[in-house]
Amino acid sequence: MRRAIARWQTWWARLFVLAIPAGVFLSIPSPWDLALIVVPFLLFLVRPPVSDRAPVELVPPVRGRWVALNSPGSAVPSHGVKAYGQMYAVDLLQPSDAAVSVGWGLRARRPESYPSFGQPVLAMAPGTVVRVRASQRDQGARNTWPLVVWMLTVEGFLRELAGASRVLGNHVIVQHDDGTCAAYAHLRRGSASVRAGQQVRAGQQLAQVGNTGNTSEPHLHVQLMDRAHPTAAAGLPMHWPDLVIDPAERNPRWTTGKPRPTAQPGFPANGQIFQVK
């Protein structure tokens, strides 16, 4: 029942937003006017049951040198929420030695200026492509305080109402032979090299890293789920055995202190730099 309700998360949010002016301006007898607002909001908060499945061993979705952020290696839920199957999701970007400053202007930095932009995104396991979205444009980075506030408030709210595809941006979802599903999000416009129904092998290129959806700068968001539909899915833990990690090498920009008790052992923590051969 919880999964069935959660599947319609976007529509509960839309009903809640519509119910506010309806309850205020229409002559609806109390307590029905309150219920009209409260019920959709409560249904919007319903999430699928949490999975207790052991970490699934997969091939890393990138090659080369990368840094982890919003990682289950630091805390679970890794992104602070269970929605959209993000329980064990991780964001990956290529570390840069360039100084990063957040200004006050309104001009966004071009996504092409980031080292992660355009990097190959690889399948973590063999399976069947079940969804490809590739038409959203790559936006400028949210690299100033006004743009960050815009992203976290108005833009984030509008994407929530628009649905999972606008939150994930351009994305590819692959269903593996064991029934699990991997979502690769924030992909570059037009970079998808696969189509729905296509069989893929582990390590095969699916697309390129972009800057689409709910993102502040180009990076890869990747997650494992027990369903192909993100709003109905429970997030699953991943394990990447083919990583070369130097515990002392970290990116200060993304390091967030010691992992919390909920952290997933063996997975790179926030700010941890790792190498994939």
Automatic annotation (TrEMBL):
GO molecular function: hydrolase activity
Keyword match Membrane: yes
Entry-linked InterPro entries: Cell_wall_metabolism_enzyme, Dup_hybrid_motif, M23ase_b-sheet_dom
EC number: 3.4.-.-
Keywords: Hydrolase, Membrane, Transmembrane, Transmembrane helix
Pfam families tied to this protein: Peptidase_M23 (PF01551)
Enzyme class: hydrolase
Spans through the membrane: 12-28
Positions of region (Disordered): 257-277
Protein name: M23 family metallopeptidase
Lineage: Bacteria, Bacillati, Actinomycetota, Actinomycetes, Micromonosporales
